[in-house]
Structures are given as structure tokens and as C-alpha cells.
Amino acid sequence: MNIPAWIWIATIGGLLLLLAIDLVIVDRKPHEVTIGEASRWVVFYVACAALFGLGIWLFSGGVHAGEFFAGYITEYSLSVDNLFIFLVIMSAFAVPPIHQHKVLLVGILLALILRGIFIAIGAAVIAQFSWIFYLFGVFLVYTAWKLSRSGIGGDDEEYEENRVTRWARKIFPVTDDYDGSKVFTKIDGKRFATPLFIVMVAIGSADLIFAVDSIPAIFGLTKEPFLVFTANAFALMGLRQLYFLLGGMLRQLHYLAVGLAVILGFIGVKMVLEALHTNSLPFINGGEPVPVPTVNIGMSLSVIIGVLVITAVASVIRARRINAAREEQPEPAAADNPR
Q1: Nearest in space to 264 (alpha carbons), one of 149, 124, 184
Q2: Which of 257, 277, 278, 338 is a Cys-bridge partner for 151, taking CB atoms 3.0 to 4.6 Å apart?
Q3: What ranges do the domains of the chain cover?
């Protein structure tokens, strides 16, 4: 897939334009984002991703379009894990609801820049060392096993600032209180960062940690850097609206960890099979390719969608049963008032 420089520039420009429109419309007057508003924006960003994928289909064929959609769905699904840490960060810093959208927008923009660098490095490594797929595959299988045991968001919801956030605190003195929607403020002529700035850094850097899992996963679906980047971009752009849409419903997605673990494990096995199919390591089959079956993008897309549908349906059924059981429990009898 040969992508001219002007297409890269036009694509990045279009993505930035979408973010600018979002920023102008939503943050023109800071407010708490409602479920209805978040729903419309989620539909809008999903539609934009679908149109982009359709464009790839028309100009580059169904295989590349399938790779984009498989990568986009996988990245969007894996990003749900990000929402848990976002909730923890917002709670830890007591971010006012009217400023949460701006925090997520800037934080995710920072995450997109960092992911772009990560993707460029990953593409260069893969082009130079094809055997890296063995390591990626094994890493994803291990991650799948770990995720299936710990669950989404982990067991401990206490937020601990990472090195990037602590580094930001050392460079910029931080005020104790928020100053409206200001990221920086002046006190007695001295420039200070507000907690809003630290939260943005925390969200952007936290996402990069999750990218350690998701970037190898999407490279297992497509080796095209353009598709890897755009799939990540569209997933991240719709993520903050998903944050407001799901909100407290996240904990009801009980089986999501299992579903994502299955997807990661599947992609990990797929990467190992492809590495064997194109093997060049001398200590494996004498440096010759191993005749093993490989998984095409159509099957990958079917497995990913199927697992997510089953996971979502199973989670909804479980949540309804729990709610029904709670409603059937008799209310405790009121204690008699002493005379």
C-alpha cells in the first residue's frame, strides 16, 4: 500500500479539523456533557470511521478496507480499558464535570501524537526484523492471559501518578485549586500550572501505557502504517464521547475482559502463525518457512465482531439478572419507633 505524502498530510489535516470542530462546538460554552449529546457524537465519529473505511475500499480494495475495520474495531474495543483509568484519574483530581470534555480532548490529542511516534517506531522495527512477530505474538498471548485473570481496570482503583506526570510536576509548579478552565495561571506575577494541566498529562501518558498492548495487536491485523495510524486515530477520537456515554455502566460490562482476552489471544496466535509461515530464524526449521495455516483478514474480522457481540449480550443478560434479583429481595422491615 503506497501512500503519497499528500494523502498523509490531508488525512492528518482532516483529523485535526474534526477535533477543532468538536472543540469549538462542545467547548464553546463549558458544560456537563449529557448522554444524548455523547450518543450523537459517538454516532458521528463511528460514521466518520465507516466513511473512511468505505473510501479505502473504493480506492484500495476490500482487503485493506477489511484490515482498517478490523484494526479500528479492535482498537476501539481495547480502548474501553482506558476509560476505567480515565474515570479513576478524573475522580482522583476531582475534575469538575464541565471541564472533563476539554481535559479528555487535549489528553487524547497528546496520546495520538505519542501513539504516532510509537507506530512509526513499530513499523520500522517490523520492516527490519520480521521475526519480531514471534515476540509480539507471545506478548499478546501473555497479555490475554493476564487480562482474563485481572479483568478490565484491574483490582486496585487507586490512582498513582506515573513518571511522566511526576516529571511535569517538577517542571511546572502546580496550584492547589482549579482556576476555571485555565491550564496555566499567574499568581503574584509567577506562572503556575493548574491541576487541569496535570490531568491532561496524566491521561495522555496513561494511554501510552495501554498502547503497549494495542499497537502490537493492530500490527497483527495489518502491517500498513497508514491503516494502523488511522484506525488508532478514529478509535481515540471517539473515545472521549464513549466515556460520557458509558459512564457508570462500565462496571456492568462484566465479561468484557474475557472477550478482549480472547481477541488478544487470537491475534497473538495469528501473529505467531504468520511468523512461522515466513520464518527466517535459523534455529526454526533450518531457517525455512514452516507450512502452517494462516488466518486471513476476513476470518479475523468475523472473529473479532463475533466475540464482541457475544461478550456484550452475555454482559447485558448478567446485568439484567442481577438487577432482577435485587428487585425481588424483600425490603428490610422498618424498625418500630420507641415511645
Answers
A1: 149
A2: 257
A3: 10-326
